From TrEMBL:
Keywords: Repeat. This is Nephrocystin 3-like N-terminal domain-containing protein. SUPFAM superfamilies: P-loop containing nucleoside triphosphate hydrolases. Pfam families: NPHP3_N. It comes from Ceriporiopsis subvermispora (strain B). The keyword Membrane does not apply. Residues 126-219 form the Nephrocystin 3-like N-terminal domain. InterPro entries: NPHP3-like_N, P-loop_NTPase. Signal peptide: none annotated. It comes from the Eukaryota. The lineage of its organism: Eukaryota, Fungi, Dikarya, Basidiomycota, Agaricomycotina.
Amino acid sequence: MDQIVTDLDELKISVEERPKRSAMKQLFYMSSEKKFLEGEREKVAAIRENLQIRDRREITGILNHIKENVRKQTILLASMEQHQRDKAAADVLENLERAHGASYRSRYVEEKAQLHPGTRKRILDEVPDWARSPSQDRRVQVIYGAAGAGKSAIARAVSEALAESGHLGASFFFLRGDPECSNPYLVFPTIAYQLAHSRPNLMTGIVSAIRRYTQHGQTQGILSSSTASIRRHSAHMH
């Protein structure tokens, strides 16, 4: 802008200080006057073009600045809204009545399900292989044996291995004498809670089901209500 002001000042001085001539002299110097005026017109046109270019640049710059601010504010607002949704979902999950000590990571489960030396390696390999298999032919794997044979220990070891590889959705260990871990009505809510944390892509469906069913004091329909969502994402669980 300073350069444009300087050009205008020089143009003004050039015109004002042009020698004043009589009509006869103007006629004599007509050719040079014509060239002078053409030059001044070109200067005016150049200054005008510079002003237009500068105006366009300034306007474009202002618009880009506004657009960038709007973009940043939109991102910030979306982040705040997502944070509120996540917090609301977390609150719903944390308020869900469930068996807190039923997970394989529970201290009570760990104490009661220690893996003893000599446990058959074939079983410890076979069950995780079944769980990781994409085949849908064998949906249930049963480990059976006499009381004290170490079934719970095997189940806990398998759960731990699957969790480390990212294949475990949820675990529930029944514990006789524990009011929560021996309550069959808490099985589905507990599994739903764990699935929402182990598979974040299922959280929205599970939270929606929890809200819908807990309004009527029910929890047993939570998993069945979100079955469609679980099936859509079941590929991620193998």
